[in-house]
Amino acid sequence: MSSRNVKGVLFAEYVRMIRSRKDIDWSPYLSAEDGPFLQQTIVDSEWYPFDTFERMGLGIIREIAGGDVEAARLWGRKSIDYLKDALNALTSDGEPRESLMRFQVLRRGYFDFDPVRIRAISGTHARLEIAYGASDLAEEAAFYQTLGYFERLLELSGARDIRCSIQSMAWQGAPSSILELDWSEVPPGRKVKGTLFVDYVRMIRGAKEKDFAKYLQPGDMPFLQQIIEDSEWYPFDTFERMGVGIVTEMADGDMEAVREWGRSSISELLRTHTDLVCRNDPSETLMRFQILRSSFFNFSAIELQAILESYARFRIKYDMCRLAEEAATHQTLGFVERLLELSGATDVQHHFVSKMWEGDAITILELKWS
Question: How far is the CA of 34 from the CAs of 26, 31, 60, in angstroms?
């Protein structure tokens, strides 16, 4: 028996695929001891040799997928639907982090070694370490199959706009592959007012040399052609995707540039809300902003938790992916800083007590001024 084993619930999928393709000669990939597995009933709860599993996978990726690892990724996505039926406890509806934690606990039910470990889960981010100890092509294919598996697992749990980043690759000599996953948890019903939405639309329209299509979905595109009304509500998930595209393509991920953008955006807002600033009274101005903010979003994204003569504390929580959350917070910071200055505050200083994009449950922003 192999020193490493895989559970039948996974092994059976490879056996099924090979059995279904009688037109392919699998003998170059399989050894003599692998043959009997193609004839017998594979029991989900039994253990099977991982080296046979690896040889089957290598044959499948070469013969059926033509060596295309993206096909392995799609295969991984489909496999999670089968596993979800077999393991009802795997996904938690509306709780992507919970589903990832369930996998971490249940993973021993798939392998008797640790090819996949979730090293960190925080907010809308996870970091995975993947090392199957297979040959290069088999390792790469298994990685992409695992990526597809987790993308689908997150989707089934309510995650949206899932993004991945590969930090290291075992098939290129690294000790293990490191995969970073980011996603959004913005519910479909969330909205943003046109007075903010129009800013993003204007910037995208004005940067025709940039490719924003890779950030947007088909349903987002009509907003770039139509007139945006200040008083109308628009989908917040579209707003998020536009923001990610703008920060990446136009600001190169520079949060100070985003902060300045927030500062400059206040002049356009004052055009429609002329009484927002109370001259020589920063505290009063922030309280006016607190009342006004409910007209920007149909949920509580920004909350003024405390206000003193020269101090304010904000709670910020958009529930977006890490990049969008960080950018929206810095845009808010720039906006509030400029608002304070216009109301007579000097020496405005800020401090983040907690940062949602770094794994905290919420962002807490403190401001002090003279």
Answer: 11, 5, 14
Residue 47 has pLDDT above 80, yes or no: yes
Residues sharing a CB contact under 8 Å with residue 110, sequence separation 6 or more, in sequence order: 6, 7, 9, 10
Q: Identical fold at 5-184 and 191-368?
A: yes
CATH of 5-184, one of 3.40.1050.10, 3.40.50.920, 3.90.1520.10, 3.40.640.10: 3.90.1520.10
- 86-127 per-position pLDDT tens digit: 666 778 888 899 999 988 888 888 899 999 999 999 889 999
SS3 117: strand
What is the residue extent of each domain of the chain? 5-184, 191-368
d(CA 361, CA 363): 7
pLDDT tens per residue across span 299-319: 999 999 999 989 999 999 999
Contact 77, 136 (CB under 8 A): no
232: amino acid identity, one letter: E
Separation of alpha carbons 235 and 297, rounded Å: 10
> Distance between CA atoms of 93 and 245, rounded to whole angstroms?
28
Reduced 3-state DSSP string for 245-301: HHHHHCCCCCHHHHHHHHHHHHHHHHHHCCCCCCCCCHHHHHHHHHHHHHHCECCCC
- Neighbour-count burial of 225, counting CB atoms closer than 10 A to its CB (0-12 exposed, 13-18 middle, 19+ buried): exposed
| Token couple for 206 | 């004005």
Q: Which CATH architecture has domain 191-368?
A: Alpha-Beta Complex (3.90)
Q: Which residue has the tokens 């400059």?
A: 264
Reading the block at residue 362, the tokens are 């919420």
pLDDT for res 22: 92
- H or E stretch at 166: strand 160-168
